[in-house]
Amino acid sequence: MKDRPPSPGLLLGSYPEKKPFHGSFAASLKRSLQIPFSALSHASAKSYESFVSRVAAHEPKLAAMPDAGMRRRLRELRALLSMHGLADALMAEVLAVVKQSCARELGIRPYDTQIIAARIMLDGKLAEMATGEGKTLAASLCVATAALAGIPVHLVTSNDYLAARDSASLRPLYASLGLTVGAVTQALGVDERRRAYACDITYVAARELVFDYLRDRATGELARPELHHRVARLSGRTPGTILRGLCMAIVDEADSILIDEALVPLTLSRNALQEGRFERHGEAMKLASKLVPGQDFILDRRRLSVELTDRGRQKVEEALPGLGQRCNRLHGEEIMRHALASQHLYRRDHHYLVRDGRIHIIDEITGRVAPGRVWSQGLHQMIETKEGCKPRGETATAAQITYQRFFPRYLRLGGMSGTINESRAELFSVYGLKVVKSPPGNPCRRITLPTRLYRDRQALWKAVVERVKTISPSGRPILIGTDSVADSEALSRRLQETGLAHEVLNARQDQREAAIIARAGQPGQITVSTNMAGRGTDISLGEGVAELGGMHLISCQHNASRRIDRQLLGRCARQGNPGSAETLASMDTPLISGLFPERVARLAGAEGLSHPRWLVALILRLPQWLEESRQRAQRHEMMKQDARMERESLIHG
Prior knowledge:
This protein is α/β, with parallel strands linked by helices. The chain is 45% helix and 14% strand. It contains 25 helices and 21 strands. Helix 2 crosses helix 4 (88-105) and helix 3 runs antiparallel to helix 4. The protein is globular. The chain starts with 24 loop residues before the first helix and ends with a helix.
C-alpha cells in the first residue's frame, strides 16, 4: 500500500498533506545524528539500469501500435495504476507509452538518462543531472506518469517565466495522454488559480505556490471538518481553498529553491498603516545622514546589518521626540538601523530596481525581479524614502512559512538539479531527500581555462574587454556573466566605448529574456548577463558555431556559493557540444574584501593573478565556504523559529 497514489478523496480527505511536525527532543537528536551520515546518501543510479531495459522491452510493440490502440492501452494502464499504485512493472510500461508519445507529439525521443532521472524522482529522491541533459523533458516524463496514476502533481519552478514556458511547450504531450495542464503565474486571479490547480499537472513558481497555500490556511477552511467539505462538493459550491492539497511535487532546480531561497521566509501580509510613520522615515533619514561610520555605527556588509555604538544610541535617544510621540528607545533604534542600512548597505541596481516610481527587489540567486516581495519591518519604506518614491502602506504578518517547513508537507516529494551534490547532507537532514546521480548521456567537452583575479572592477572590465576583442573575431558567441544589474551595465558601457556590439540581459530586460537568450548562441553574438542566464535556459548554438569551438563563457561572478558560480558555467558546452569557459574575478567583491586585507588585492598587479593556483583558489573559495556555513546556520535557526511560531499559533489560535 505504500505506493498507493495520494490524491483527494475518502481516504486522505479533500486537502491531503502531511501533518506539520512541531519538534521534540528525540526528533531533534535524530536529525542531528543524521547530518554526519547523510553524505552517504549520494546513491548510485546503477540499480535503475535494469528498469531502463524493462521500459525498452515495451517499445517495439508500442512503436507499431496506432494512436487509437495506444489510447486504449493507456486507459487500461490508468485503471491498473489507480488500483495498484506506482508498481515497478506498471511504471515501466507507462513510461514506455509516454516516451513513445514524446516521439510522436514533440518529435523528441527521450534518452535513457532522462528515463533514469524520471524514475529517481518517482521514487521520492533528487536526481542530479548534468547541465544540458534535458531536465525539462525528464521532469515531464515523471509528472505525466504520476498524473496518469491519478496523483495531482505540482511541477515547481523558480519563476513565472519557466512555469508558463514549459507548460505551454509540453501541452501537446500531456493532451495526447489525456492529461490537463495548467500554469499559475502572478497575474492570475483566485478563480484562475483554482482552475489551474484543478488540472492533472500544474506548473507553478515556488513563491506563488507557497503564498496560495498560506492564503488557504488564512481562510480557516482547512480547520473545518471533512464532512463540511464533502457537503460543499456534493452541493456544487466553489471550494473555499485554492489548492487541492499537497499530494506530490517535483522541484526543478531543487538546490536553488530548497537551499538558496530557503533563507527568505514567505510572509503573507495585511495592511497595517500607522499614523505618522512616513514622517518618522524622513526624520530618521535626516538623522542617519549625520551619524559617523565607525563612531556612531558599525556596518556588516556581508550580513547587510547595522549595529549602533553607545555613542550612536545616545544620539538616537536624544532625537526620539522628532521621531514621534509613540516611538520608544528600542523602536527608535530599530528605525535608525533601517535608515542607516538603506543609506549605506542596500544599493540601487544591485539589491533593487526603481521602476515606475516603485522599489522592486532583485533576487540575488536568479538575478530577476522578485514580484510582490517587500522587505519587512519598515526597511522597504525607508528605501522608498531614500529613492523619493511614494511610500506604500506598511504591512503586518498574517501568516508565514519557510520552504524548509512547507515542502516536507507533501505526501510525495522529488526533484532535480545539475548542481546538487554539495548540498546533499543538508537536503537529507532537512527534507529527508536522497540524491542520486543520473549518468550523462554525452561526455562533457568543455575546456576550462585558468582563473584570474584582478585588483578591482575597473581592472576586471578592462581585462574582459580585451578577452572579448581577442575571441570575437573568430565568430564564436560569447556569454559574460556578472554579479548585478550595475555590473552588467558598467561592462556594457566599456564594450560600447570599444565599439563591440552586444546585448544586455538583466532585471530591466525581463520582458525580452526569451528573445535575448534565443540569439545568444548565434555566430559573433556577445551577451552580457546577470544570473538570469544561469538557470532554466538552454542556449542553442547557431549554424556553424560548433565547428568554431562552441560558445565561450566568461564568468565575472563570485556568489555566496561555489555551486551558484557553477550554474553559469553550465550554459556552455551542453549536450556534448564543444565550448570553453573561464573565470575572471575582482578582489573588491564584498565576499573577498570583507575577509582579506587590501594588501592581498595588491598581489594581482597589473596583469591579474593566476598563479599559484592554490592561492587563487584560497582567495576565491575560503570566503564562500565561510558564507555557506553561516547561511546553513541561518537556515537552521530560521526553521526553528518557524516551527516555534507555528506551535504558538496553534496554542493561541
